[in-house]
Amino acid sequence: MFFTNKVKRMTIAAAIVATIPALAAAAGRNPDLYADSSKVVPVTELKFYQDKEGLTVANGWGDPANGAHSNYIKMPGGTASGIHTHTHSYYGVVIAGVVANEPPGSKQDHSLPAGSYWYQKGGEQHVTKCISQTECIFFVTSKGAFDYLPAR
User: Fold this and answer.
1) For the residues 130-142, what does the mean pLDDT come to?
2) 6, 105, 113, 117 — which has fewest CB within 10 A?
């Protein structure tokens, strides 16, 4: 059976999201992730806020200030972060818009439409961009606490 590129991208994204519990387990048992009962959170109930770095974020599971976690992050269309690093590595999955995540000075953006993912190694400088004209939303998950360390 042959699949379209869109179906392949969505299958890969679903596989990445399905690995989130394994990532958290590798970081240690997390009470928010391993609750006593199942949990369902419709997108309409996500609570977006501005974090101290100015990002528009909604927490998924875990505690981004202290350890394993996931976040939804929004970026306005046509915007880019400054050059920065994170202490811990993370995976990002594009939910909406077209994202690029490149090293500083990259000559070409690698377009990541909805359903695509990337892996960002901790400590490596990079720039995250919303290269679509519409808002970008991506889902990130990490074994460690979230930080945003601007390049000096």
Assistant:
1) 97
2) 105
Residue spans of beta strands (DSSP E) within the chain: 49-50, 56-62, 69-75, 79-80, 84-85, 90-96, 98-102, 112-113, 117-120, 127-130, 136-142, 149-150
The pTM (predicted TM-score) of the whole model is 0.75
Distance CA 4, CA 143 (A): 32
Which SS3 state, helix, strand or coil, does residue 77 take?
A: coil
11 pLDDT more than 60: no
Taking only Cα atoms into account, the Rg of the chain, rounded to an integer number of angstroms, comes to: 15
Range of the domain at 36: 5-150
**What CATH number is associated with residue 77?**
2.60.120.10
Contacts by residues 75-79 (CB-CB < 8 Å, ≥ 24 positions apart): 75/99, 75/128, 75/129, 75/130, 75/135, 75/136, 75/137, 75/138, 76/130, 76/135, 76/136, 77/130, 77/132, 77/133, 77/134, 77/135, 77/136, 78/130, 78/131, 78/132, 78/133, 79/129, 79/130
The structural domain count of the chain equals: 1
Give residue 14's pLDDT band: very low, low, confident or very high (50, 70, 90): low
**Stretch (H or E) spanning 27:** helix 20-27
